[in-house]
């Protein structure tokens, strides 16, 4: 049986990170997480370095602006912190309207990947909903994008936003194949209203089918926003994922 890897995108706990970063990481480790996806790791580099040394948490991945940001600086800090995969979280919707624009965006990310290889950092891309809303000959923009990526560039499929954008996350996983190395697993109704998101297992997303479709992908808990206690939501989400994966 495949060993499941569970992580949490620390953006979910951003308010706590900004007031007590080491305490937040200690609480995350206490929940049973072994991995984290870092948020604002360049800004909080030193604090993360100290806090990670005091917990068993592994920074498997992190988000940083790569296509329109300072990619070389982000890669350098990622390597210093031992981040395995550095993920571009957002390429603006205007760059997903034509095939040529999508392929140009992929070429930009490929350039970052070439820069990162020597540092031992893998580059990836995380979607929202606009990458799947438009049809390109029976394929989503995300699939066109993936076909233009170099072989070692990976995808972090945000399963919630794929579904909200009108695509089946399960079918996307099937078509994108092994390039999907990370899943953002979040739940809630089919809405763009962030505060309506729910702990995993308490919303409308086909979570069990998604997990079954990607047994080897890292499961990353994330809530873009939440009306209740985000720590409780993260804990509940982890418990549900572990139960479904059995």
TrEMBL record:
<dbReference type="InterPro" id="IPR013022">
    <property type="entry name" value="Xyl_isomerase-like_TIM-brl"/>
</dbReference>
<dbReference type="Pfam" id="PF01261">
    <property type="entry name" value="AP_endonuc_2"/>
</dbReference>
<dbReference type="InterPro" id="IPR050312">
    <property type="entry name" value="IolE/XylAMocC-like"/>
</dbReference>
<dbReference type="GO" id="GO:0016853">
    <property type="term" value="F:isomerase activity"/>
</dbReference>
<protein>
    <submittedName>
        <fullName>Sugar phosphate isomerase/epimerase</fullName>
    </submittedName>
</protein>
<keyword id="KW-0413">Isomerase</keyword>
<feature type="domain" description="Xylose isomerase-like TIM barrel">
    <location>
        <begin position="72"/>
        <end position="241"/>
    </location>
</feature>
<dbReference type="InterPro" id="IPR036237">
    <property type="entry name" value="Xyl_isomerase-like_sf"/>
</dbReference>
């Amino acid at each position: 049986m495949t060993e499941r890897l569970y992580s949490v995108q620390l953006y979910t706990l951003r308010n706590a990170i900004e007031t007590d970063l080491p305490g937040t990481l200690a609480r995350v480790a206490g929940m049973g997480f072994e991995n984290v996806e870092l948020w604002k790791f360049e800004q909080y580099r030193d604090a993360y370095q100290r806090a990670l040394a005091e917990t068993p948490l592994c920074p498997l991945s992190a988000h940083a602006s790569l296509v329109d940001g300072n990619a070389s600086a982000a890669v350098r800090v990622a390597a210093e912190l031992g981040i395995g995969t550095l993920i571009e979280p957002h390429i603006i919707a205007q760059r997903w309207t034509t095939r040529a624009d999508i392929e140009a965006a992929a070429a930009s990310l490929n350039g970052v990947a070439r820069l990162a290889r020597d540092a031992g950092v893998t580059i990836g891309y995380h979607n929202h909903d606009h990458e799947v809303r438009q049809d390109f000959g029976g394929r989503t923009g995300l699939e066109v994008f993936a076909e233009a990526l170099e072989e070692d560039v990976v995808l972090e499929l945000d399963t919630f936003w794929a579904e909200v954008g009108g695509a089946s996350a399960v079918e996307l996983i099937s078509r994108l194949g092994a390039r999907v190395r990370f899943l953002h697993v979040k739940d809630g109704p089919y809405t763009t209203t962030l505060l309506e998101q729910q702990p995993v297992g308490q919303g409308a997303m086909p979570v069990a089918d998604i997990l079954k479709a990607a047994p080897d992908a890292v499961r990353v808990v994330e809530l873009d926003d939440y009306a209740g206690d985000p720590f409780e939501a993260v804990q509940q989400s982890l418990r549900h994922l572990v139960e479904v994966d059995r």
